[in-house]
Amino acid sequence: MRIPNDPFLGTHYIGKEELKAVTKIMKSKSLFRYHGPDMQYVTDKFEKEMAKYLGVKYVLALCNGAAALKLACIGNGIGPGDEVLMSPLTFIASASSVLSCGAIPKFINVDETLNINADEIEKNITKKTKAIMVVHIQGQACDMDKIMKIAKKHNLKVIEDAAQALGSKVKNKFSGTIGDCGAFSLQAGKTITCGEGGFLATNNKKIYETAKMYHDNGGFRVGPNYPTWENGKTIFGENFKMTELQSAIALEQLKKINTIIKKQEETYDYLISKIDLSFYNIRPTVKNHTPIYTSLILNFDDNNQCQRFIDYMAKKEIGFNRYNSHLIDEFDTFKYSQSWHESNFPYNILKFKKTNCDKTKAIFNRTVLFNLSASLEKKHLDYIVKAMMEFKNNESK
Ligand SMILES: Cc1ncc(COP(=O)(O)O)c(C=O)c1O
Q1: Which residues is 129 bridged to in the sheet?
Q2: If you measure from the C-alpha of residue 386 to the centroid of ligand 1, how many angstroms do you get, rounded to a whole number?
Q3: pTM, 2 dp
Q4: Which of the following CATH numbers is that of domain 258-324+360-396: 2.30.40.10, 3.40.50.10490, 3.90.1150.10, 3.90.1750.20?
Q5: Hey, is 201 helix, strand or coil?
Q6: What is the pLDDT of residues 37-82, one digit of tens each?
C-alpha cells in the first residue's frame, strides 16, 4: 500500500472557503494591502484575528517566515558583531536570518527532545551574545521555563522560531508568545498555509513598530489604515509585505486551525496507542507542553538500527526518513563561511566559529521522522503499525 508521505497539514484543508475569499479579493481588484479601488482590508483582519488567537498585542503579516525571523532580529536590535545562540537542527532560514542582519549564529547542542539543550546555553554566552533563538522543531516547544530564566539572568533577548509550531502551547501560552517575539511561517507544510507567508507576533510595541517600518521599505504610514507614508520619516528597510490574496487564504485557514490540530492529534494518538513503546522510543517532550503533531519522531539506540528501520519501511513504501540531509552547521554557508559578497559579509565583521555539535550529530544520526500528512487514513495507520511490529519482531529474533 502506498502511504501518503507529505508534510501538508493546512494544505489539505484548502477548499471552497479559501476559493470564495480569494475570488472576492480578485473581484475587488484590490490586491495590495494599503491601496486599492475597493479595499477589503483582509490583511488587517488576519493580523487582528491571529493576535486574538495567540493572545498577543501585535501581529505583523509578512511575505514569509524567513522575513519574520529577520524582523525578529531587527526588532530586537540585533546587528553587526552580535552573536545569536541556536541549535543546528533546524531549517537554514533560522540561521540565515541572523547572518542577514550582520550577526553570527553560534550553534548549541540539542538534547533528546531535538530542541536546544538549555543546560548547554550558559557556558556558551560571551560578551557578544545578544539573543537566544529557540526553534520549536516539528511542533514541540523548547524548555522555555529554563531558557527564559537564563535570558533574564544574562539580559538576553529570546526570539522564538515558531515556524513549525503554530498552535502548540507551554502551560497556557502559545509557543511563539513567550519570548520577546515569535516568528511564524504560513508556507505549504505548516499548520495553516497560504502557500508562502508568515508573521511576527509580539507584545512589545517597539519591536512591532520597528518591524512594521522595516517591512514596508522603512516607511512610516499615517492616516486611517495607513494609506500613505509620512514624508521623509524613514529608516533603512526592505519590502516584506503580505498581499491581500495571501491574507484572504490565511484568514480562512485560521478558522480551521482547531480542526487541523485535532486531526493531527488523533492520528498521532492512534499510532502511539498501537506501537510497542517498550521497543520504540518516542521523542520526549518538555514538562507542561502541549505539542502539535506534525510528525512521528523515533529515537533509536544506534545509527545502524535506525538505518535498518528506514530501509525496512522503504520496502513497505512507508517514508520514514532522517530529519534533514544535514545539520545546518554542515552546510557550506557555515563550513566555509560562504557569502555572496567579496567582502565576505558578515563573516568579515565577526568570524563564524564552529562549536562542537557532536552530541547533536549523534542524536540526529539515530533519529527518524515520519510526516503525519493530514490525508492519512485509518487503513494507512494500521499498515504502518503492522510494519513497525514486523520490524520489531525481526530485530528481537
Ligand atoms: C524552523 C523554520 N524556520 C524558518 C522557516 C522559514 O519559513 P518560510 O519558508 O516561510 O520562509 C521554516 C520553514 O520553512 C522553518 O521550518
Answers
A1: 83
A2: 33
A3: 0.97
A4: 3.90.1150.10
A5: strand
A6: 999 999 999 999 999 999 999 999 999 999 999 999 999 999 999 9
